[in-house]
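Cross-posted from the bioinformatics board.
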Amino acid sequence: MLEKLLAEIRSGGTFETGVLAARLGTTPALVEAMLDHLQRAGQLRPYEACGDACGGCSLKQACKSAQPANGVRLWQG
Amino acid sequence: MAECHDLSGRAVALAVETGAPLIALAGQPNMGKSTLFNLLTGLNQHVGNWPGKTVERREGHFDLNGRRLRLVDLPGTYSLTANSPEEVIAREFVVREKPDAVVAVVSAANLERSLYLVAELAALDAPLVVALNMMDVAAQEGLQVEAHVLEAALGVPVVPMVASRAQGVRALLDVIEAVLTGQRRPQPRPPEVRADHAAILAQIEALIAGRVPAPYPQAWVALKLLEGDAEVTRRMQESLPAETWQAVHAVLRAHDDAFLAVASGRYEWIGRLVRAAVTRPRVGQIGLTERLDRWAAHPFWGLVLLAGILGLVFGLTFTVGAPLQTWLEEAVIAPLAGLASEALSGAPFWVQGLVVDGLIGGVGSVLTFLPILVIFFAAFALLEDVGYMARAAYVMDNLMHLMGLHGKSFLPLFLGFGCNVPAVMGARVIDSWPARLLTILIAPLVPCTARMAVVAFLAPAFFGAQAIWVTWGLVLLSLTMLVVSGVVFNRLLFKGQRSAFIMEMPLYHLPNLRTIGLLVWQRSLSFVQKAGTAILGMALVVWLLSYLPGGDLNSSYLARFGQFLEPVGRWMGFDWRLTVALLTSFPAKENAIATLGVLFGVSPEGGLTSLLTASYPTATALSFLVTTMLFIPCMATVAVTRQETGSWRWALFSVLFYLVLSVAAGTATYHLAAWIGG
């Protein structure tokens, strides 16, 4: 299952955990657990949300909650 | 005293009291392990470090049926593979100290994540008990977790509990007591290695048979070697004769992907357990989310829905906001200008001009579109809060991939809808320099709030009821230019780089009015603050240039500057005032309105919108909107472009690119509209 997940990710593209889970015949929660596992094993590299990207912007307070960081994760195999 | 080994192989001591039965608490972080430890030991605990480590060690004792038990809180770990010092400490403790019982604390609300550690503990033959914590959270999420099914499948006692409310603790203690007295004998059923790797595992086990240092179980060591566990590999290399190690090493090298097969087998085992023991809600929230996502996240219909929702937002904004804006202009700003003129009738002419034209005409005009922005902000805050924006991002990214754009570009570009500055800075998430550069270059084509505010003000002024379609078309134009520019730059700058973009869609839920209100308040406040600082400053400069040297607008420095550039402006159908308004949008996009406010002034007879409507034909109005939409990004965006690219070359390239693009698009629009309009 992990190999299939890794192969999907390495093929590149946009994925939604629910769709990935359906393709692998499992639950989104298990897909998320496997993503974290692959990250800990050094197989995937996550990108933190923009970090200090808003540092110099005068609107950063207003934009803060608009960042999709909670719902979006980027990975590279 | 006992010994264990850290990652570097140094022998360190474990200071564990001897005598009383020893219980170990194991679990992943945030599973409620510490809550249970505190509940059981109360004040009878002490905190230190694991010998030779900076990892916190907590141990204590409690009495059970007249007997004292020692309790050790193992570090929170996800697995027992030597990925971190915590994992080495936890497994060394279980292997070497041989606790009388190991209590694995798992979350009933997230068994998929927490059972991995149980899979590893089960392979160690430890007297395992599972504390199925957070049953309340699972129930809140609609999950029905059947502990007896899990118990039958795992072969070890499973005790449902809510540690935070001390529920189920008595039952857990009874099970521990039964395990300690031998009344219950856990018979763990760990996951088996997948069939395609079983023979390899057997081969390794045969090679190391009889040569595994005590107290490590032979089968476990073979499995860890197959997994590529660095610590076990190093230890076995030291322990085995050279020729045996070479044979083991040859097998491992031939199957260097085995670690995936081992972990994969564990996840398949977890998947089976969860399928058997957990019933998920099929109706209600999740069912609704799935039904809605069939449309909202569909590659084609999702885009259609997004376009429709954007149209609705613009429609709502103009239907409700534009009349309010007009009312503010006519009922507040114009009378205020009249009052100020009367009050300052005795003051020098330049003071009257500064206050009426500079301050009220400039900043006042900008402030009138606050109602439009409030509705715009509220609509997007609502979409965000109910969980739709994640779907919008998902379908947009699908489209971008279709066009050959880099997936990781999407997140920063998405931020551009708020402000282009974080969009350019957000490109830092992209490793590849050409891809980052591409994202930085095309980010200003995402229509930011300020640009949308200018369009939201001017579109109803020029086009009345058709403003919705004009605005919708302008956004579409901008995004189309983004995709086209992206495809062109993508082909030129980088090829074939693949990355994944994974989204965890939140469930749709009812909006929280407080969250939306707060967001609208923060954004509106930021806008008003900007109007009172940067826009005010620019409005005053524009007024001063329009006043000097002789107090006559048509012979002012600003007019001379505008007339100097007018030949270029004429390509797009602009007079010198529109040309100047466009140029002053460079420091901040809203300045275009402030400048028009200063140049046209306000009077009791009419506001800026009516003056603009009367002054320009449709072709010029459309051309001005298109040019504004695609014009050079604001000064702050150019500055961060320089900062993020590390050179003025790319910042100037960006300025030049947008100048050419906007002038070309504006010119084409003007001539096409004039030709169509006859």
